[in-house]
Amino acid sequence: MSFSYVLREGVAGFKRARLSAFSSIVAMMLAVILIGVLIRVSTNAYELAQAIKQDVQVEIFLEDVGDSRTAEIERMLNETEIIYEVEYISREQAMELFREEFGAESDLLGDVLFLPASFRVRTTTDAQASQIVSFVDEMRVYRGVEEVRFNQRGLEILEERLQLFIIGGVLLGLFIGLTAMVLVFNTIRLTIYAKRDLIKAMKLVGATNGFIKRPFMVEGIIQGVIAGGLGAVAVWAIFHLLIPGYIPQVGIMTWPFGRWYFLTGFMVAMGIILGFWGSRWAARKFIKETTIGS
To answer: Mean pLDDT in the chain?
Structure first.
C-alpha cells in the first residue's frame, strides 16, 4: 500500500466528516492549550522557586577565634559542594551594617565592637532542604562556630508546595490528554461506522485490518497537527496579548528553556500524539469488530 493512497484517503475522510472532525479538532485544541498554559505556568513557578532557593542564606556567627581558624572555616565552606558563594563579614563590617540600619541610635554604643564576625553563605539552586539542614547541623558543632541561623521551615514549605504543584500539574495534564483522546476516539468511531459497508467490502476482497485502519490514523494525525498549531497560536496570544494587556500584575512570564519554539513544538507534537493514539485506538477496536457477516 502506497503512502500517497493512505494520505489521500486520510484527507478524504477528513473532508467527508467535517462536523465531527471540527468537534474533534476543537476538543484537542482546548486540551493542547490547557497543557501548554500549564507547562508555561509550571516552568515559571519552578524558576521562581529556584530563584528563591538561590537567595537562601545561612549565617554562621563565629566565636572570638584567630585569623588562622577563620581562614580554615572559610576554606571548608568554599569546598562544600552545596555552597556557591561565601561572604566574610568582620566585626568592624558588622558594626558598620548595624549603624546603617539603626542610624543615630547606634551612636550610643560608641566604638564598642559587640557584634561577632560571621560568614554569610548562599546555597546552590539544586541543593535540597535535607542537604542544607545536614550542613547547618554540622556547622553548629564545628569548632569556632558560635551560632548558625537558617530559615529551615521556610525552605521545607517551599519544596513541599513545589512538589505538590508539579504532581498536580502532571495529573491534570494526563487527565486533559486522556479526555482529548476519548473525543478523538468517538469521532473516528463515527467515521468508521459511516463507512462500515465499505469496510466489509474491503474485507471481502482480502484487505487486512492494518490496511483499512491506516487512512483513519492519518485522519487523526491531520486533526492533531491542526489542533496543535491552533493551540500554539492561542497560547502565544494569551501570554503576549491577553495577560500583558488585561492582567499586568502577573508580570513577564518566560518560555520554557527561554525560547518560544520549544513549547510550540511540544504542543504540535502533543496534538499529533493525541490524534494518532485516539484514531488508532478507535480504528483497531471498531474495524476488528466490523465482521463480514454482521
So the answer is: 77
Q: How far is the CA of 24 from the CAs of 102, 183, 184, 261, 283, in angstroms?
A: 66, 6, 5, 25, 15
| DSSP at 249 | G
Grid cell, residue 121, equals 553563605
The answer to whether the pTM exceeds 0.85 is no
Mean pLDDT of 21-27: 79
**Helical residues (DSSP H) of the chain, grouped into ranges:** 3-16, 18-54, 67-79, 91-102, 129-140, 152-194, 196-204, 209-237, 243-246, 260-289
- The C-alpha cell at 216 is 483513519
Average pLDDT over residues 82-104: 76
Residue 117 and residue 172 in contact, taking contact as beta carbons nearer than 8 Å = no
For residues 126-142, average pLDDT: 83
* C-beta of residue 123 within 8 angstroms of C-beta of residue 83: yes
pLDDT tier, 108 (very low <50, low <70, confident <90, very high otherwise)? very low
The radius of gyration of the chain from alpha carbons, rounded to an integer in Å, stands at 31
Q: Are 216 and 192 in contact (CB under 8 A)?
A: yes
Cell numbers found for residue 150: 537558617
Question: In the chain, where are the structural domains located?
Answer: 3-51+158-289, 57-150
Strand blocks (E) in the chain: 57-62, 83-89, 118-123, 145-149
Output the CATH code of domain 57-150: 3.30.70.3040
